[in-house]
Design goal:
3 domains; 692 residues; 8-stranded mixed sheet; alpha/beta; Rossmann fold; elongated; 12% strand
Length: 692
């Protein structure tokens, strides 16, 4: 719910009141009103209060700068005045997101953003130059009143408190609360409670009012409400209060995502399942919502059916290890796994962690480029700042009863076989950084008894040709054999990570002939030796064992997004005698080209995670969380090193890697790893097997 500051709706005042009108409303002369507004000490306290009250009621704004000072304009810069305590400026994600968005827009106009904080009740005007953004001002904040009459160009972020008629920008918080209520009602929830934000903040009041009015209009009675301060801790405390006073609740609306995350923790500690027992809906689209189990899935239509399905935790940057006040770090995820394990009986709980931060990461694609570069001491940083801290945490005895499965560096080693024409891949090869980095990771992880390692091995439409398959087997072997424990340092390999290739093509195999012509000659198969991931994984396992890996080598297939169900799924083999027509009408994988990898249109959720689903396979797993974007469909500035890749652009007509076919990507996609609601809904709709 809600929106980023970049989408704020600008609301500008018209017909501003005059100083004479303010004076008349206050019962004083214009001269006296002027002395109050310019800070003269020759005015009584009661008169000063009368004038400020009139200013507040009428929304008076002085447009002329004080005598003797230069007129302040946006060209002098913009100062964001945060009406909150300094520590919250750095711990509250809302401020970081707002200031980042504001700073980008202001920079585009050739000026700069400055930030200062004042305590929530301060009336001391800080030194300012240029225009001012007021952020976080609560009811009757004296500084907001003073700034409104200071002659400085002012905009308030959010509807101003106590009807102070400052120009402002805001989202429609009231309608957001209404939408939340409607979603809960449509999903069948009948006992809805709420965790409101500080009542002195208009945004908090509007969110709660929108919810309560809609519920009451639908026939609900009194809505139990507890209040927090937009922090996760306050959400936990508020949820505990609600459980004591409204134990029959089956849904909770929280006025911020952080409070929703705290509420989920309290519900779990109380033995309530989310969303099976209690649905939780937040507000703000904060980063924590992408890392909160069940994350965004439960809030989507049909998402409750898979919201509790296990997916992997992606450690895709150094900062992800520690996490923050808004994002769960590795320890927080493991602590949650321990809590769930306690209710899991004698069977150890499995948690999957993706190791994904090699220098020059994903060297042939742009959408998921990482933070480390080989040329900037990236390999040493990878070892010391990334792998070592992860290994230290995983080695903690507190997690010894967990089964920790690590997925080691997706899209790394295969790039050294097929994509050396890309400069960053060539650098990774010539310096040995990829191989050395993977070996270092395996040495550290394999040494931990309850950690299991699976190295990424791409997919059939990448390595399925004999010119790629054999060299990949050799590279995998030499890399792993070079570790301290040799081939024993890996438990297996994984295919189709974050990809869309079908687990099985049910209507033909690589041996199928069409009117005497092999399907290998079709444009879709393109002389590949495999048509699906199951046959590829088993063949790769056999080849790796023949090369020297142990007989018990395991294989995983990521089935999170390769279901390809829905109306477009063929129900039987084609009757055509033309090999291209036969394959196109028979294949369940409906991509325009098997090399397309970004936010693929028409895809569906695949087989649910399962152990030993077929001979030679350890498991089907969901490594890529369904609903998380593969990459932005247009250029989006960011500080995560993620670039715009044309393969994520639905208008892109392709390149030699995908046979110059259309990209097949969905439009309006966010950055990789961000929640992509439209894609998730399509994945649910096209799930195969279908969701019950």
């Amino acid at each position: 719910m809600g929106a980023l500051p970049g989408s704020f709706r600008e609301v500008l005042m018209s017909e501003q009141p005059t100083l004479a009108q303010v004076a008349a409303a206050a019962g004083v002369s214009p001269a006296t009103a002027s002395r109050v507004l310019t800070g003269s000490v020759r005015v009584s306290t009661s008169t000063r209060r009368q004038v400020y009250d009139a200013v507040s009621r009428m929304g008076y704004v002085r447009h002329r700068a004080p005598r003797g000072s230069a007129a302040r304009t946006a060209a002098d810069g913009v100062t964001a005045v945060i009406c909150d305590h300094l520590p919250r400026l750095f711990s509250e994600p809302y401020y970081a997101r707002l200031l980042s968005a504001a700073g980008n827009v202001i920079a585009e106009h050739g000026t700069h953003l400055m930030v200062t904080t004042v305590t929530p009740n301060s009336s001391t005007l800080p030194a300012l130059s240029g225009a001012v953004l007021i952020v976080g001002a609560r009811e009757r904040h004296p500084l907001a009143i003073k700034l409104s009459t200071s002659g400085v160009p002012v905009r308030n972020i959010g509807r101003p408190p106590h009807d102070l008629k400052l120009p402002y920008a805001d989202v429609d918080n009231l309608d957001g609360g209404r939408q939340a209520a409607e979603h809960l009602l449509l999903s069948g929830r009948r006992s809805v409670a709420a965790i409101g934000g500080p009542p002195s903040l208009p945004a908090a009041r509007d969110r709660l009012d929108g919810l309560v009015r809609t519920l009451q209009a639908a026939g609900h009675g009194e809505v139990p409400v507890a209040y927090g301060d937009f922090t996760a801790a306050s959400g936990t405390h508020a949820m505990q209060w609600l459980l004591r006073h409204a134990p029959g609740l089956d849904a909770v609306f929280a006025a911020s995502d952080l409070m929703a995350a705290g509420a989920i923790q309290a519900l779990r500690r109380a033995g309530r399942r989310v969303p099976a027992d209690v649905a939780v809906i937040g507000f703000d689209d904060a980063p924590v919502a992408r890392h909160t189990v069940p994350a965004k899935a439960a809030a989507e239509p049909g998402g409750a059916a898979v919201a509790n399905t296990s997916t992997a935790v992606w450690m895709d940057r150094i900062a992800a290890i520690a996490g923050s006040s808004s994002v769960m770090g590795l320890r927080a995820h493991l602590d949650e796994a321990v809590r769930q394990d306690a209710a899991n009986g004698a069977t150890p709980l499995t948690i999957q962690v993706v190791i994904y931060d090699l220098p020059n990461r994903d060297c042939s694609a742009l959408a998921s480029n990482g933070e480390l570069l080989i040329a900037e001491n990236g390999l040493n940083r990878y070892k010391a700042e990334y792998i070592d801290p992860i290994a230290t945490i995983l080695r903690d005895p507190a997690y010894a009863n967990l089964r920790i499965v690590t997925i080691v560096e997706p899209d790394s080693l295969p790039n050294l076989v097929t994509n050396l024409s890309f400069p960053k891949c060539a650098e990774a090869n010539s310096t040995g950084a990829y191989v050395e980095g993977v070996q270092y990771a395996l040495n550290k992880l394999h040494a931990i008894p309850n950690v299991y390692t699976y190295v990424d091995a791409a997919h059939h439409a990448w390595l399925g040709w004999d010119s790629n398959f054999g060299p990949s087997v050799n590279l995998f072997h030499t890399t792993v054999a070079g570790t301290t424990a040799g081939v024993d340092s890996v438990d297996g390999f994984i295919v189709n990570t974050a990809n869309y290739s079908a687990t099985k093509e049910p209507h033909f195999t690589i041996d199928t002939l069409v009117n005497g012509t092999s399907v290998r000659q079709s444009r879709w198969v393109d002389w590949n030796y495999y048509v699906d991931e199951s046959s590829f994984a088993k063949a790769l396992r056999d080849a790796l064992i023949a090369k020297g890996f142990k007989q018990g080598l395991g294989m995983l297939i990521d089935t999170s997004r390769n279901g390809w169900g829905g109306a477009a799924r063929p129900g039987a083999a084609s009757t055509s005698t033309d090999v291209n027509t036969f394959v196109n009408e028979s294949r369940v994988d409906r991509r325009t080209h098997a090399g397309n990898w970004c936010n693929q249109s028409g895809a569906g959720l695949g087989a649910r995670p399962a152990a030993s689903p077929e001979a030679g396979l350890d498991a089907y797993v969901w490594i890529k969380p369904p609903g998380e974007s593969d990459g932005a469909s247009s250029d989006i500035p960011n500080d995560e090193g993620k670039k715009f890749d044309r393969m994520c652009d639905p208008t892109y007509t392709g390149n030699n890697l995908n046979g110059n076919n259309m990209s097949g990507a969905l439009g309006n996609a966010p950055l990789s790893g961000r929640w992509f609601s439209a894609q998730f809904r399509e994945l649910v709709q096209n799930a195969y097997p279908p969701l019950s």
